[in-house]
Amino acid sequence: MSAPALIRGYEVVIGLETHAQLSTASKIFSGAATAFGAAPNTQACAVDLALPGTLPVMNRGAVERAIRFGLAVGATVAPVSIFARKNYFYPDLPKGYQISQYEVPVVQGGRINFLLGGQPREVRLTRAHLEEDAGKSLHEDYHGHSGIDLNRAGTPLLEIVSEPDMRSSAEAVEYAKALHTLVVWLGICDGNMQEGSFRCDANVSVRRPGMPFGTRREVKNLNSFRFLQQAIDFEVQWQIDRIEDGLSIEQATVLFNPDTGETRAMRSKEDAHDYRYFPDPDLPPLAIAPEWVERVKAEMPELPGSMAGRFQRDDGLPAYDAAMMTQSLAFAGFYEATRNAGAPAKLVANWLMSEVSKRLNAEAVAIDAAPVTPALLARLIQRVQDGTVSNSGARQVFDLLWQREADDVDAAIEAKGLKQMNDSGALEAIVDEVLAANAKSVEEFRAGKDKAFNALVGQVMKASKGKANPAQAGELLKRKLG
Length: 482
Description:
- The structure is a single chain.
- With 482 residues, the protein is of the alpha+beta class.
- Helix content is 39%, strand content 19%.
- It has three domains: 11-295, no CATH class; 302-415, no CATH class; 424-481, Arc Repressor Mutant, subunit A (Orthogonal Bundle).
- The strands form four sheets. Strands 1, 2, 6, 7, 8, 11, 12, 13, 14 and 15 form a ten-stranded mixed beta sheet that branches.
């Protein structure tokens, strides 16, 4: 691996703590619902409210999702793990403590692999542990007062902690995207960042190359990849400016303001001893039998890294294309369905990365809801391949299919008059006319000017009203020009 790029002579050191809300229907220690968007405090039961006499009961589905993640990242799934009380006082934490895992987490170690600038990268994981979410403080529309919504209290989270292996904001974003893809792929988290289902805390510090790690500041609750990059970039420059001014960096928890693009300190950063962790007396140790792990392993889907490797090996796709085809399980399924309908791998990948992705992004449509089906896309690609329609004509047909103005590729080609000219006699007559009318371009080509040839091809396409096959026209021109 090449040396990391320096910023003003400093090396950036980044570690991420990511909270993935697990996709269970109920909370981690109670039967209350986890659905998003309910009216405040309508999904908080006696356990979530910490009423006297209530006891937590572990959600088996949450544990199973943690096992699935541990297997996917090559981690150790602890046969026995311990729940602890993390003590702090905040209005939206009714118990006065959060049930989490500290010394013995359920998932230990692991790694996330991804591409950065086309090059493979790997970030080590320290751990992933189960915990409950806190409630939410509301400060708007309360006439100068704050309200507390405890619907989120007890929502199951898997906190995934990386080692400080990242050296740029771009690398942190690619790591976060790869992690996001994985948890959604596994079906353990819906990945909805706007609803807070997947959010990152970035631990950022700077140092001179070869020196010990600098003092880190933690940027909390970043719920978009763009904000993650902006927050890290601002924090890096702020820390360097402060050091260059002869000032020290104090460990702190900071918030990012997306309106200003700046971070601001919220509180001094606590250390573990400040939370007075101790084993939760209401929860026995979490025991995971080997048979349970084997059963989860047998039900696992093919992982994105493995599938991308298969696409490279069996379909001949470049590493970047294979990574793009596995950006989600639905995307990979669309690619494979189009391939199975008879379209060549590379052409399918090209269309999915260009026209299809462009439309999906512009209209915020999921690929499994795309109006152009794999069968239609495969047919369109085949018609380009056999010379029936040009690439530009195919894009016009794709537009008709996407807008649901056509539902048959061949009928759309005929209706729009996009069928390419495959009559060699007619094409030869057009080529002869173009050569006769463009003597200057002919002379320039024979004098070694390649641009003149492209001009002649353009004239043939113009004379044929775009119906000539460019490849055939080019071959015929070359033969005529000797």
